Amino acid sequence: MLTALVSPDGRIPDFLAPRPPTESPAFDDEIAVVGATPAAEMRRDIAAAFSAEIPAVLIGPARAVRTRTVQALSQYWSTCLQPDWARIRAVLDGDVDYRAQQLSHFGARKMFEHLDSRVRWDDGVL
Known about the structure:
Layout: H1 27-35, H2 39-49, H3 62-81, H4 85-106, H5 108-112
Helix pairs in contact: 1-3
């Protein structure tokens, strides 16, 4: 199910990454937002992510697709991320702090310097 949510070119439906309500939201709060996504929004986001054929598992009654999605994400969270979340979160927080220091001391170019080569800062344009 989870691999079906990623298009061949790497895009995912927007409803899978809702804007967090707080700086450090709980997984249960975020998954509740995903599970409450209106059917029309979910369908629109899926269609936008897949320029070609939509995987069969993402077709069907919206409630069933939502339920399968929430179950798959919840299982992935509890199996793969939750056991190590404190360490993962510490690394993420450390990286945010480091990038903020780079930005404040040296500017945007330096902040983006060691990210993926596809991320560049050229004459004020990201």
